[in-house]
Amino acid sequence: MTEQPNRKEPTMGWFEGREHHYPIRVFYEDTDFTGIVYYANYLRFFERARSSYFRLVGFNHSDLWEADDPLAFAIRKIELDYKKPARIDDSLTVVTTYDRFKGARLWVSQACYCGGELLVTATSEAASITPEGRPKRAPKWMVEKLAPYLES
Fold it and tell me: Catalytic: 81?
């Protein structure tokens, strides 16, 4: 296979103020037998959006894990509210805000839209952890990078 010139990486989305917007296309594999997005796949969509948010701010999970003082994030709690279904071939946008940090915890709000129509909302609490799975305060540099995007 010949390498394609000017090949772009997949989009990581974009910011509008504090909000990160991440586009997703619904594929056949995302749906159940009726052509409606399988409910658990919204968790995957929301995870992709949270990770893409991190990348755009300037860090990624693998670099955090491979650092001299490694850390990762684990979802401690998540709540979803399903309002309307998405269907095969729909073009979705996940809107994410990182709301606040406190110690080792990070609160995130997300919403999934099709056009201007709200489909699903999610609120989650993540914990930064050590390789052994213990809570660990997020490093100062990380909080500083995220500060412009957190609630006032």
Answer: no
* pTM for the whole structure: 0.90
Distance CA 135, CA 130 (A): 6
Distances (CA, A) of 75 to 62, 115, 123, 136: 17, 28, 11, 14
Q: At 32, phi and psi to the nearest 5? A: -90, -170
Q: Which residues pair with 129 in a beta bridge?
A: 72, 135
Q: What is the pLDDT of residues 101-136, one digit of tens each?
A: 899 999 999 999 999 999 999 999 999 999 999 999
17 burial via Cβ count (<10 Å: 0-12, 13-18, 19+): exposed
Structure token digits, residue 152: 């006032």
Measure Cα distances from 96 to 1, 4, 16, 70 in Å: 37, 32, 10, 25
